[in-house]
Amino acid sequence: MRGRVPARPLSQIADAAVRVFITKGFRPAGISDVAGALGLSHGAVYTYADSKQALLYLALLRVLDPQAVESLRPPVTAPPPERIVTEVKAWAAAHSGFADLARSLGRPPGPSAGRELAEIVEGIYGFVEQNRTVLALFDRCSADLPELAQWYFVETRRGMLARLGEFLSARIDAGLLRPVPDVPAAARFIVETIAWFAMHRHGDPDSAMLSDEDCRRTVRHLVPAAFLPAGAFLTDPPLFGAPE
To answer: In sequence order, what DSSP letters do the residues of 36-96 get, joined into one string?
Structure first.
């Protein structure tokens, strides 16, 4: 069979695996789904990856470092889960979108709280928008992979939400941002609003008319404005402009 199978670059196999796992998740997807996406037989896929876990490794490697898969020799074997998580953590450390949040937590509340929040929103939005394929793959597959779920949901996402809540609480207590009914829910509101416009809307066919720039500008305007005291707007320098 291998003699009859035309050679495909591993990047092509990995791209198909990315599409399948984002669409179906890890557990529901099968090797036959990846084979169908490639126009190959089920058995032919084993020429390139020796298991579904190896296909997921190819998919993760492809979104984390697009050129890295070409250095592998087929059939690819999945490394232990701990090594996969180590590679994911290394990528995350080099692509942090939360520098503005860390800086704001490192200084006392000041009069520029609205602008601080705008910069935090902008940083998170840019990170999600730039890495939406990576994050979509994490979202769909982490629930079926305990080691990845622990890092992605518990250590990373919950930790970021807690830090964002800490920022909001400090600025609200100082009277710089308006009080909210529940700070953890407010932090979740910020992150989920960003996630929908920067990532999830691309899977909604009814949102195709929304441009990337319009979504980015709208979120950067409305989300911080929701937390400003009555009558306040972002100035010095004007980020969104004063009201008419």
So the answer is: HHHT--HHHHTTTBSSHHHHHHHHHHHHHSTTGGGGS-SSB-PPPHHHHHHHHHHHHHHS-
Task: Please check whether residue 120 is in contact with residue 101, taking contact to mean a CB–CB distance below 8 angstroms.
Answer: yes
Instruction: Give the CATH fold of the 2-78 domain.
Output: Arc Repressor Mutant, subunit A (1.10.10)
Cβ 30 vs Cβ 52: under 8 Å: yes
> How many CA atoms are closer than 13 Å to the CA of 34, on its beta-carbon side?
33
CA–CA distance, 212 with 216 (Å, rounded to integer): 6
Of 203 and 173, more confident: 173
pLDDT at 232: 65
User: Is residue 34 helix, strand or coil?
Assistant: helix
| CATH hierarchy code of domain 85-225 | 1.10.357
Whole-prediction pTM: 0.85
Reading the block at residue 109, the tokens are 């509340």
Residue that is written with structure tokens 């909210």 in the block? 180
